[in-house]
Specification:
- The complex is a heterodimer of chains A (200) and B (605).
- By secondary structure, chain A is an alpha/beta fold.
- In chain A, 42% of the residues lie in helices and 22% in strands.
- Chain A is built from eight helices and six strands; from the N terminus they run βαβββαβααβαααα.
- A six-stranded mixed beta sheet of chain A has the order 2-3-1-4-5-6, with helices on both faces.
- In chain A, helix 2 links the parallel strand 4 and strand 5.
- Chain A is globular.
- Chain B is an alpha/beta fold and 605 residues long.
- In chain B, the strands form eight sheets. Chain B has a seven-stranded mixed beta sheet with strand order 3-2-4-5-7-6-13, with helices on both faces. A five-stranded mixed beta sheet of chain B has the order 9-12-10-14-15, sandwiched between helices. Chain B has a five-stranded parallel beta sheet with strand order 17-18-19-23-22, with helices on both faces.
- The radius of gyration of chain B is 27 Å and the shape is globular.
- Chain B contains 20 helices and 27 strands.
- Chain B has four domains: 220 residues, Rossmann fold; 108 residues, Rossmann fold, CATH 3.40.50; 178 residues, Thiamin diphosphate (ThDP)-binding fold, Pyr/PP domains (Rossmann fold, 3-Layer(aba) Sandwich), CATH 3.40.50; 60 residues, Alpha-Beta Plaits (2-Layer Sandwich), CATH 3.30.70.20.
- Strand 2 of chain A pairs antiparallel with strand 8 of chain B, so a sheet runs across the interface.
């Protein structure tokens, strides 16, 4: 068994935290784990990519272009930007809440309509699941829990090899004591939202 | 976050965390650095942990000093570790070359964290050549586990040969994360030593230096013998096709190719000549897989020539593999005519939908924005050259500022300014950060004074070393590891040199900065403007940021967009022609309010 996840988003969205939670869960499940992270300059508001690979025999910290089993994307434009990381068979989890780049905010560039971004993914891929992680996080209590919503959602993805309960346990060990309840709720809501979508 | 001083069986560690644990397991008692990506996390970890680990650690003012303090420790019998990014070793090359002549008495590692693909760097130089240039042994790990384990092995080599050892990593080692098994912490190494006078070794006047060179060459012969038998150089698998590889490339070979024998090298200077010859002999052909320059490949070719081995060697010299940029699983496709390679996945095409860019940029409320806005306004149509330097302020290269015309290295902008002043009729403006000023800015400023170059130096003092993750620097003072020092005052340093024009400004008061910059530009001689304002990202991290926000009064706003065009702050948003502030990003610094010609923007507590 071998499974690879490309986690994409924008600096400050919690991409590194999510990859740590997934990576630690894979380790606890007894898998070999190799990850690659972006640190330094790119974190100043730039696109961020974190690669997680785990399985029985894993050496490379990077995945072949197109080889991702799952693209876990925290941001709509970044989802589309990262499509080449996967193939038609890749499962894609796409958060629909945008983070506007500085040039868009200042009116120098335009941000595509979310529907167009979703369409762009669907044209190339048959396994897209979308989520409004920030909205769900606010329903759970606080926008910052969007991260936990995403991690819960991943647990519901078909063929995702890590156990939901273990994932939740590791997440709750990672977050501060005072936000455990919030994260637990956000995780469950994220999981349920995905299950409903899969049924629909 | 894993407890790097704990007794876990294993942890999921970043390469740099694994290296830090490796130092504790090797009983290293002295460490020094100047921060630089991809090595920076080691310094941040040691700032926090060195004291508890029974180790002295310092951020030196630059890499040269970092090597010198560590050299003194190792020459006094204390195991030392000095680390930096690849270009930092250029700065430290001077002491390193002669330190090899003197040698060390306790183990000393010099870690060079190279950055193929220049993720956070100005070039992708291959520092393996420093090992051959300095005639010192080199060790190269391939993953976080080895990055930890090879530290202790490298200290053994260093102490057997009384030589400093180059510990060479790359971004995908330092910033890879993997499950790392812990070993025991070593506690029997001394933290204090004694320097025993030995002029013939440690005083490299010509008469002694020529003798020390003989000793160094003899040590290299012994190093070769160690390399031949080192378990760090090993053969895996069998077959009549061979692959010789090292560092991170090994992982791509191992996982994405098959059916070959692999010679994996971890002790890469001197390379094990006999082991390589034995590996190559009888093979149909051999491929050398390494990132950047054909460092191993050229030595394999040389060994084959000496041994009269007529085995074809594929690699960079015949164009099989690229010399530029880091490798990845994709690179292995270049070998598909020579070995079994995992088929490339059918990737989704690049989308046709136009996507907005998302380049890294200066943060919301970054004081550099104010200083750049003011400088551009003061310059107007005057011909200038914006000399810039290494740090967050490099991002001034982007529109609308475009205040970086010439960047080569730490302190390089300030140095170049003197040359531009002499050969052009353009006024040089040298931007330099506080940490960079202490690192390499004082000598070029001195030189400009000495030679009467008419330049403006703008010291962007944001009270930290921001880009690499907020390390302290001489300008902030030191407050860790049980040592407290006072800040070295930038203005006093500049005054002490004899600069006649010195102004300290608040970059959030953009209008006042414009007036000061106009004065500075008109000054004949060296003018220094110090922009003093702490990095808001640091204040946020330390929970010292005052809660304030800016708000646009739409009844006063005339939509002239002066705020957007001058400050271009990511917290300013244009919505249907209106300018509004993004309260999730705005820190209420008031730069936009300061430049608003209608007073339409207010700052709220």
């Amino acid at each position: 068994m071998k499974y690879s996840v490309q986690i994409v988003g924008v600096g400050g969205q919690g991409v590194l935290l999510a990859s740590m939670v997934l990576g630690n869960t894979a380790m606890r499940a007894g898998f070999k784990v190799m990850m690659s992270e972006v640190h330094g300059m790119a974190q100043r508001g730039g696109s961020v990519l974190s690669t997680l690979r785990f399985g029985d025999e894993v050496y490379s910290p990077l995945e072949a272009t197109g080889g991702a089993d799952l693209i876990m994307s925290f941001e709509p434009v970044e989802t589309v930007r990262s499509l080449t990381l996967g193939s038609r068979k890749t499962a894609i989890l796409m958060n629909l809440d945008p983070v506007y780049p500085a040039n868009v905010a200042a009116g120098f560039e335009t941000y595509p309509a979310i529907d167009d971004l979703v369409k762009a993914v669907r044209t190339e891929n048959d396994h897209l699941l979308t989520i409004e992680a920030t909205k769900i996080a606010i329903a759970a209590g606080k926008a910052v829990a969007a991260n936990a919503v995403m991690i819960g959602a991943v647990a519901a993805i078909k063929g995702f090899p890590l156990d939901r309960e273990l994932l939740k346990t590791v997440l709750l060990e990672t977050v501060p004591e005072k936000s455990k309840d919030l994260n637990k709720k956000a995780f469950d809501l994220g999981y349920e939202a995905m299950q409903q979508q899969a049924k629909a | 976050m894993a407890d790097l001083l704990g007794n876990s069986a294993q942890e999921l560690l970043l390469g740099n965390e694994a290296i830090t644990r490796g130092l504790f397991e090797a009983g290293v008692r002295f460490a020094s650095t100047y921060p630089g990506t991809p090595s920076s996390e080691v310094g941040n970890l040691l700032e926090e942990l060195s004291d508890k680990a029974g180790m002295y650690f310092e951020f030196s003012s630059n890499e040269k000093t970092a090597v010198e303090v560590s050299a003194a420790a190792a020459s006094s019998g204390v195991r030392s570790f000095v680390f930096m990014k690849h270009v930092g070793l250029n700065v430290a090359a001077d002491p390193l070359m002669t330190l090899a002549y003197a040698g060390v008495r306790a183990g000393m590692l010099v870690m060079s964290a190279d950055d193929p693909s220049a993720h956070s760097s100005q070039n992708e130089q291959d520092n393996r050549y420093y090992a051959t240039l300095a005639l010192i042994p080199m060790i190269e790990p391939s993953n976080p586990q080895e990055a930890k384990d090879f530290i202790a092995a490298a200290y053994e080599v260093s102490e057997k040969l009384s030589l400093p050892v180059l510990y060479r990593t790359t971004t995908r080692i330092n910033h890879a994360r993997a499950v790392v098994k812990f070993g025991a912490l070593r506690t029997d190494t001394p933290m204090k030593g004694h320097f025993d006078k030995d002029d013939q070794r440690f005083v490299n006047i010509p008469a002694f230096a020529v003798k020390n060179r003989l000793r160094l060459l003899e040590m290299n012969r012994q190093a070769l013998a160690l390399s031949e038998v080192s378990p760090l150089n090993r053969v895996e698998g069998t077959g009549d096709i061979g692959i010789i590889t090292s560092g991170v490339s090994y992982n791509y070979v191992k996982e994405f190719t098959g059916g070959t024998a692999i010679l994996k090298l971890g002790f890469t200077n001197p390379v094990p000549e006999k082991k390589i010859a034995d590996f190559v002999r009888g093979k149909r052909y051999v491929i050398v897989v390494e990132e950047l320059e054909p460092y191993l490949e050229d030595q394999v070719l040389r060994i084959c020539a000496q041994q009269r081995l007529l085995v074809p060697i594929h690699g960079k010299r015949d164009g099989t593999l690229p010399r530029e940029w880091e490798y990845s699983p994709d690179t292995m496709q270049r070998l598909s005519a020579l070995v079994k390679v995992k088929p490339a996945p059918v990737q989704m095409p690049k989308p046709t939908l136009a996507l907005p860019g998302r380049a890294p940029s200066l943060c919301a409320g970054c004081p550099h924005r104010g200083m750049y806005a003011a400088t551009k306004r003061a310059v107007g149509n005057m011909p200038v050259v914006y000399c810039s330097d290494i740090g967050c302020y490099t991002l001034g290269v982007q529109p609308p500022f475009r205040t970086a015309d010439f960047i080569i290295c730490m302190g390089g902008g300030a140095g170049a300014a003197g040359g531009f002043a002499q050969v052009t009729d353009q006024k040089p403006i040298a931007f330099i950060g506080d940490s960079t000023f202490f690192h390499a800015g004082v000598p070029p400023l001195t030189s400009a004074l000495f030679n009467h170059h008419s330049i403006v130096m703008v010291i962007l003092d944001n009270r930290t070393t921001a880009m690499t993750g907020h390390q302290p620097n001489p300008g902030t003072g030191r407050h860790f590891g049980g040592i407290d020092t006072s800040p070295v005052d930038v203005e006093n340093v500049v005054k002490g040199l004899g600069v006649q024009f010195i102004r300290t400004v608040n970059p959030y008061d953009v209008k006042s900065c414009i007036a000061v910059m106009k004065e500075a530009l008109a000054f004949d001689g060296v003018a220094v403007v110090i922009s003093k304002c702490p990095c808001p990202l640091l204040l946020k991290k330390e929970k010292r940021l005052e809660k304030k926000t800016c708000e646009v009064d739409q009844s006063k706003c005339v939509r002239c967009y002066t705020c957007l065009n001058m400050i271009a702050c990511p917290a300013l948003i244009k919505q249907d022609g209106k300018v509004v502030t993004d309260l999730s990003q705005c820190i209420g610094c008031g730069m936009c309010a300061n430049v608003c010609p209608k007073g339409a923007i207010g700052v709220r507590q």
